[in-house]
Amino acid sequence: MKKNILFLLIGFINFTILGQDTVTNSLLQRWNELPSTNKSFNMVLEENFSDDEQVILNNYFNEQTRQISSNTTSIQDPVLDFFYVLNFRNEEIFGTLDAEPPFNSVDPIETIFDNLFADDFDDIGTLYALDFDLESLVTVDVITGERTVVGPLLNFPTGQTIAGLSYNVTNDTMYAISTNGVDDTILYTVDLTSGEATLIGSLGITIGIWLEIDNEGNAFSADIVTDAIYSVNLETGQATIIGTPFDIDIEFAQEATFDHVHDVLYMAAYTGGGTGGIYIVDRDTGEIELVGNTNALNAEFVMFSAHDETLSLEDNNIETSFSMFPNPSKNQVTLQVNNDEIIAIEVFNTIGQKMKMSISDENMDVSSLKNGVYIVKVTTIKGISTQKLIKK
Question: What 3-state class would DSSP assign to 29?
Answer without folding.
Answer: helix
